[in-house]
Amino acid sequence: MEGTNDSSLEGFILLGISDHPQLEIIFFIVILFSYLLTLFGNSTIILLSCLDARLHTPMYFFLSNLSSLDLTFTTSSVPQMLINLWGPDKTISYGGCVIQLYVFLWLGATECILLVVMAFDRYVAICRPLHYTTFMNPWLCWLLAAIAWLGGLGNSVIQSTFTLQLPLCGHRRVDNFLCEVPAMIKLACGDTSLNEAVLNGVCTFFTAVALSIILISYCYIAQAVLKIRSVEGRRKAFNTCLSHLMVVLFFYGSAIYGYLLPAKTSSQDQGKFISLFYSVVTPMVNPLIYTLRNKEVKGALRRLLGKRSLLRGGKNSIIYSLFISTHFFSFSLSG
């Protein structure tokens, strides 16, 4: 208990991504660029989904929820990471670490549920197209979104609170670049078997079970797509589902590796890389591989710029160039 009190007064030291200080400036530049790209891509999706009436559909409602989640998810860790990479101070206050622990786990669990909801939306749209508008009404969409956000919050409150009860015995050096449950469990000096069992049980539900539901739903979707007679219809449905599956595999693959595999089976550097992947890379590539290559979104952006008469002005050339460069980067990633 004395160790716990000491940590609460002094805070923690985040050891960062790499043991080589000379690489910190490179990591700083790459992560800063990725963060700015994340802000731009996800903000664009949210803006277009709100302003363009043609995008007022369940699919884009859930996409805007995913973009809002990714913005908050990456912002909960990246700014602190950039501060630690830029200067010699690697500390984080106890309160900051606790907030990061709760928020990061909340949003991560929420994304697990939200991706299941999005798979369900695609299942209804492709397998039950005649009933899609009636079934996926606004009330149900808001209910499903609320279940995702509140379900993730409940998971975070339980796991984070349980983790913070562990004795730290004065240990302050977190061998990671953020405060998350696996890193905090490794920091504890007492018996952590119960915490690891709870972590594995909850994460199995939020990752392995959720991923199984998504894959089963896409088996039914694939059967329905193959029955579509129109070549253009099959291609559109296939492209939409393929993009969603790429997002699912990126997120769930890294989350399962980081949370379900025993800590002793992987090196600490591998754990840091996986944490960096799902906290920085995944929020960045989500809008790129899922939405910004979508003709409806690009059309909505052109209509928005046209309404504001920016296509003929100097300001528009900057905005349009940013969008084209983002779209080119998306093509490079998927290619």
From TrEMBL:
<keyword id="KW-0716">Sensory transduction</keyword>
<dbReference type="InterPro" id="IPR017452">
    <property type="entry name" value="GPCR_Rhodpsn_7TM"/>
</dbReference>
<keyword id="KW-0297">G-protein coupled receptor</keyword>
<comment type="similarity">
    <text>Belongs to the G-protein coupled receptor 1 family.</text>
</comment>
<feature type="transmembrane region" description="Helical">
    <location>
        <begin position="60"/>
        <end position="79"/>
    </location>
</feature>
<dbReference type="Pfam" id="PF13853">
    <property type="entry name" value="7tm_4"/>
</dbReference>
<feature type="domain" description="G-protein coupled receptors family 1 profile">
    <location>
        <begin position="41"/>
        <end position="290"/>
    </location>
</feature>
<keyword id="KW-1003">Cell membrane</keyword>
<feature type="transmembrane region" description="Helical">
    <location>
        <begin position="273"/>
        <end position="292"/>
    </location>
</feature>
<feature type="transmembrane region" description="Helical">
    <location>
        <begin position="242"/>
        <end position="261"/>
    </location>
</feature>
<feature type="transmembrane region" description="Helical">
    <location>
        <begin position="197"/>
        <end position="221"/>
    </location>
</feature>
<keyword id="KW-0552">Olfaction</keyword>
<comment type="function">
    <text>Putative odorant or sperm cell receptor.</text>
</comment>
<feature type="transmembrane region" description="Helical">
    <location>
        <begin position="99"/>
        <end position="120"/>
    </location>
</feature>
<dbReference type="InterPro" id="IPR000276">
    <property type="entry name" value="GPCR_Rhodpsn"/>
</dbReference>
<feature type="transmembrane region" description="Helical">
    <location>
        <begin position="140"/>
        <end position="158"/>
    </location>
</feature>
<protein>
    <recommendedName>
        <fullName>Olfactory receptor</fullName>
    </recommendedName>
</protein>
<keyword id="KW-0675">Receptor</keyword>
<dbReference type="InterPro" id="IPR000725">
    <property type="entry name" value="Olfact_rcpt"/>
</dbReference>
<feature type="transmembrane region" description="Helical">
    <location>
        <begin position="25"/>
        <end position="48"/>
    </location>
</feature>
<keyword id="KW-1133">Transmembrane helix</keyword>
<keyword id="KW-0812">Transmembrane</keyword>
<keyword id="KW-0807">Transducer</keyword>
<keyword id="KW-0472">Membrane</keyword>
